[in-house]
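pinning this so it doesn't scroll away 📌
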Amino acid sequence: MTLPTAIRDVVHLEDLLSEPTPAAIEAIDRAGGDLVVLGVAGKMGPTLARMARRAMDGAGVPHRVIGVSRFSSPDQQRALEAHGIETIRCDLLDQAALRRLPDAPNVIFMAGRKFGSMGDEPLTWAMNAHVPAMVCDRYRKSRIVAFSTGNVYGLTPRGRGGSREEDSPAPVGEYAMSCLGRERMFQYFSRAYDIPIAILRLNYAVEMRYGVLADLAGRVSRREPIDVTMGYFNVIWQADANAMALAALDHTSTPPLVLNIAGPEELSVRTVSAELARQQNVDVSFINREAEDALLSNGTRGWALFGRPRVDASQLIAWTADWVRRGGENLGKPTHFESRAGQF
């Protein structure tokens, strides 16, 4: 893969975000049959579905990619269909509608609720813990790759490589607790129904329009002071996270395989912000001091299975600084990565 020095526009960006790896193509080839992506209209879903379609085409297999969502944006639904992805409108909390979804041997579960959790915790729990149980009942004869989050670990001391899969969960706040509930549902039903499952704890996927780097670059460009209390973080190029999710279809098991999906660098908010400011030719200021712990994940086990990420942090920083400096599109969905109390 030859990386560009800059990303021209949204079309170029989404083409890069949907480029499959050899591991993803091989896994799609071996998986055999259609793929249903539940929660396809989120931040990662559209490019993951496109990558799956491209991987099937690359493998020369005729199977379908079916994207399921409530689709609040008709434009997004049309865009997916233009790239060869079938779409179905469905509220996953509607059990009758869930039962009407087509059978498929392969399912990627991306549904969930994070932002807006404070003040409507019951809906967060319903989406993050009840829906997985319903999905396992509906797709008990499929293999399932389910997205989770590094938030289930809680904060870990910096400089030690980040949380590992064998570490005990320590979720902070109801969002993280509900995400652990999601994992427990998949683990329970994997045993009860003998469903092969992989659970992917993501921390954090980024692209030019969204993510920790976009948040920091935007604040830098607006000359806002940067709070460094949550002083350290991981990022992974969204295309690499997408490709690892598809490759994980090859590694589902009972009980579920649990994997961190994270980049190799432990990044400093202060250092990254200073570099984003340098590349945008602006000044930057900081407030507060770094805490000794942060939300950090160790992705070593995933890299051993799927290969290391194709894009490193220095390239992501350069792309993001250039994108923001040129006034590139932003999704307007801040990550709130700086939250230390688990409130979203």
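📌 and the second one:
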Amino acid sequence: MATAVIVTVIALRFLLPLLIPRFPLPAILACLVLDAADQTIFQAVTDDPLAGYQSYDKALDVYYLAIAYCATMRNWRDPVAFGIARFLFIYRLVGVVVFELTQQRWVLLVFPNTFEYFFIDYEAIAVWWNPRRLRPAAVVSLALAIWAFVKLPQEWWVHVAQLDVTDFIDDHRWVSYVVAGVAIAVAATLVPMRRVLPPPDHHFTLAAERRMPEFQVERRKVSLRDVVLWEKVLILSLICVIFANILPGIEAGSVGIAVGTAVLVIANAFVSEWWYRRGRTWQNATQSFVTMLVINVVIVIVDSLVGPDANDIPTAANLGFVVLLALFIALFDRMRATRGPDDRRLPTRKSIELWRRRRAQARETGLPNPPARRPASLE
């Protein structure tokens, strides 16, 4: 019974994030709830001390946050919000890698997971309004407020003080009354604010496709000078180092994992480009994932036959590692292709300048922000 519960929880932590690109808000909230509850569930069904829980939890946090970041490529059209999300996500990845290498809990306080709540708040706005109506200052202020007033206290509570919310509430019953009072006060404050809010830009929807502008899926030419390729190398290398520190059977060091991942990512990019130039393409993310998986498995098998450790059969851990890498490459490439080949990954400062120029142009022409329309299908 205990084994079945543990396997079910872990399976859900792998499967629920796959819904984030299409249903961003409910899917990531489900991931957040399961992330908060899984340790309590494990403790209820087993007496195991769960010594490796911290690394397991951080790795699966990174897993669903990586999928959320890929979703921002497709779903977020504001370059300022996207630039902030990119910084917050990569910053957190660096912090988790440092934590895995040092096992110092204070590191997670210095590198808080601000990206997650920023993603949630931005998507909560998008269920009624077009988030591009937000001024850059408002978007930056939202991220800073989450960092200072939400994530820093939470990271201290969880990783420095090492307090469990459920246990704390059980020991201090008055906390539940305080939380209920705060919730009522917040609700009483928000209800009058509805009068000053602008009218919704579209009907309430939790599906990203129903509120997004139309776009075309266009591949970007692969080049070693392409900043997007190196962004993918950096992100996937950091993710793989994190997972390598918790997966059993991975004997390579962090530097070796990072270099090996970089080589695989670049090789995948050029093989995909070679294939594309010969008229081969993929209609959806699933086909892309299967193709990337086959390419990576072939590379790993060839390396096991002709590499320095020839005749070594790839272990289950290595193959699992390859599956994760193929999934992330497929999602990154597919979601990135929706931004078009001309997206240059503008820094936040330049994105704000571009926003101001477009705003001024809109005022001169008298045209409002473009309405959200249902996009062409990505299937």
